[in-house]
Amino acid sequence: MASSSSGSGLTFKLHPLVIVNISDHHTRVRAQIQHSASAAPLAEGGGGRVFGCVIGVQRGRTVEIFNSFELLYDPLTHSLDRSFLEKKQELYKKVFPNFYILGWYSTGSEAQESDLQIHKAKKLIVVCAYAGDIPLDNSFLRQVSSLLRRLPAMESEKFQDDFLM
């Protein structure tokens, strides 16, 4: 589990499952776009970006992110499927009654205008909103980057076929 303190006095604990979930989500979407001619409009509209929620707990000044789940995004309306979100939230509450949605994620190299629209529309609280603006923590980002570089990359046709099925 990666742990990091911020300048605000908050301590963030990010469980590896979250990183693996987001990486898997992003990889699956990119693979589906590359192998499906019908997904070409999605690739143009959404660029293969993925969206999801992070869940966990906040105890005092410690925020622990335990898990994440995918959200359905419509690139044409730049919106998330609200009923899907509510259903997922309800299911997670049954299994993990002490976990709360702490925020949401999207993949990509830069924040998009649609990200702000989604944030405002869904009233999802970004983890950083618990204590206002938190300075960039390069040490924590290096830890996450190091973990991601250690994940194996596979490039084989058989793997792609099996993975997509």
UniProtKB/TrEMBL annotation:
MF GO annotations: metallopeptidase activity
Gene Ontology CC, one term: COP9 signalosome
Leader sequence segment: none
Pfam family for this entry, one: JAB
Top-rank taxon, per record: Eukaryota
Gene3D superfamilies for the chain: Cytidine Deaminase, domain 2 (3.40.140.10)
Domain MPN stretches: 12-163
Family: Belongs to the peptidase M67A family. CSN6 subfamily.
Protein name per its UniProtKB record: MPN domain-containing protein
